[in-house]
Specification:
- By secondary structure, this protein is of the alpha+beta class.
- The chain has one domain.
- The chain contains 2 helices and 3 strands, in the order E-H-E-E-H.
- It has a 3-stranded antiparallel beta sheet.
- The longest helix has 9 residues.
- Bound molecules: zinc ion.
- The site of zinc ion (ZN) has 8 residues, from loops.
- This is Zinc ribbon domain-containing protein.
Length: 70
């Protein structure tokens, strides 16, 4: 159930996340994003599996989790 502050997964409201990294090296994802080589951080809901990609930044992992959870 979503917590009463309304933060959570955009799909199911769960507030547990996993954060991983993807490095693209010219394969499928890089075509999708029209880039050559880059890295992304992936925030995934641990309940329903919904995931969002964020361009890797120097601001640290907690920020993207905040974005994901809204
Ligand atoms: Zn979810």
């Amino acid at each position: 159930m979503p917590s009463d502050d309304e933060r959570g997964c955009p799909k199911c409201g769960h507030d547990g996340t996993d954060v991983g990294k993807i490095s693209t090296t010219g394969g499928g994802l890089s075509k999708m994003f029209d880039i050559q080589t880059n890295s992304f951080e992936v925030v995934s809901c641990t309940n329903c599996g919904y995931s969002e990609l964020y361009r890797d930044t120097t601001s640290g992992g907690s920020d993207i989790v905040d974005v994901f959870l809204g």
